[in-house]
## 1
Amino acid sequence: MSLLCVPLGRCPPGGAGQAACVFQVLLYTSLPDFCHKFLPGYVGGIQEGAVTPAGVVNKYQINGLQAWLLTHLLWFANAHLLSWFSPTIIFDNWIPLLWCANILGYAVSTFAMVKGYFFPTSARDCKFTGNFFYNYMMGVEFNPRIGKWFDFKLFFNGRPGIVAWTLINLSFAAKQRELHGHVTNAMVLVNVLQAIYVIDFFWNETWYLKTIDICHDHFGWYLGWGDCVWLPYLYTLQGLYLVYHPVQLSTPHAMGVLLLGLVGYYIFRVANHQKDLFRRTDGRCLIWGKKPKVIECSYTSADGQRHHSKLLVSGFWGVARHFNYVGDLMGSLAYCLACGGGHLLPYFYIIYMAILLTHRCLRDEHRCASKYGRDWERYTAAVPYRLLPGIF
């Protein structure tokens, strides 16, 4: 909870966390997006999500970029003008904040479980397996909501951990400067490369409505606790490591890390853009300067209706069926390589991401095989590799 926004004054972590939580909820529910009115290419405001298994189409208030900008403007205003609190406050309260984040994660997960049983937003989209622990971990409700706009899945996937991610890194950089008198180029690289990923997430928040987290996962401990604790504490290990073990990279090493991170981001973003463009235009577009190749397919939805769809076989999606994950993994490796080779701890992130994305890839493949049947076999014959051409 304390990681949702800028902690205030000399409040203890719990009190600051409550104020931060309220601030982020207000930014999410009460401040309509204005960024889409003056940022060319940015899609914000009220947007529709994908159709749920029960046929519901939810509307979302897309204003994450606005919330991130306002939060960080307050952070920098404090650091350079107001001096309400030290820029190292997150690092200085790292363990108390961990307790606060855990309390929030378990409270949200428990509330979502109770809500799913007794007052669900859409009873038709609830899933009860008969196993209490599975229901708690993976969630009962598909889209738990309070009121018209507070969507648990979108809010907790995007706000607690991802807004905090860059704030945490800034606090680590401030602490490194306080302890060692300067900020190393390794810390700068970690801050810059991870900030690119965070800003990209909020710039493309509307696209995120079409991803596996929103379209297929229910909301339980896996997402609730994971977004509040796992993401902000494990995804920022590189910055934390560099506070205690400052690394100054040679120029070739630093440039190599930067290039790896930027190329990875390019692949990740262009691959996702290609699929999004293909979907939005129903294939009436150009991919790498050519009309895209497609696999025509059909499937039957839960209500018994027959639908037709197209699977993209051009661009990065003709190289491998999940080549966007390759870009994600390249960026993840760059964060780790910025920390040098002195310890295994910073490399936990790339190990975790490799496992996570491979598992996600296999889950998606299983779902698509069940959905499309023989048409999926035709697609896998046209694009034989999942992630790495010639390997996997």
## 2
Amino acid sequence: MSRVARDEVRRFTLAGLTLDLVGGSVVGNRYRENYDVLHVDPALPFAVVADGMGDGAGSRRAGAAAVPTFAARVHAAWPEVGAAGLRTAAEAAQTAVREAGAGRAELTGCTLTGLVVEPDGSQGWVVQLGDSRAYRLRDDLLELVTTDHTVAWLGVLHGWYPVDSPAAARARYQLTRYAGHPAAPEADLLAVTLRPGDTWLLCTDGVSDQVGYHGMRDALVRADPADAVAALLDASLAAGGADNASAVVLRARPAS
């Protein structure tokens, strides 16, 4: 099995709130390379994950263009980041990926899921393109906050086919929105709150497709967020390691 690569915990103290953020990634057993890209910012309270589409040069270029571009735009807008700044950052990531794929035959695209906390800690923003995900664990309830931008999500939601059907499995790979899409669809932008005791998870589908709901929750209740990341990635390997898997965990607690 592949070794889990895990970052150090980043700590941010905001007004009345301390945030611990840590991310990690594993190649898995299917691919030779990791086409996921994650960024846990060392200076500002935000993180983002991306999952390249496919296993070639286009997938690699997409994540390498989207994530640094998004992060740079967040830094440029800080501290007045807000909704307008994040829409601009997502649009810039779209443009960067399309430019990276211009004139090339292979698909150049990736998902993009980010969580950005405003400087006073009172407001957070989830940015979503594609089928990587954001979850929140609050008061022992784990909830999926984002929507998958896939034909499978639409099909299951509207009863086109059962969730465990071959048709749903095929549609899982048909993304309706992603960074690099020729129509440049806008990202979902969700305003969220952060309370002491909340745990947030950003992950690629290498985690969400391989680690079940209860396994995910069991990992996220661990006291150390770094242990939670390691448990999620180890669980993806134990399930077969059929995809690159990346996770970022944010833990909110009262400011000390």
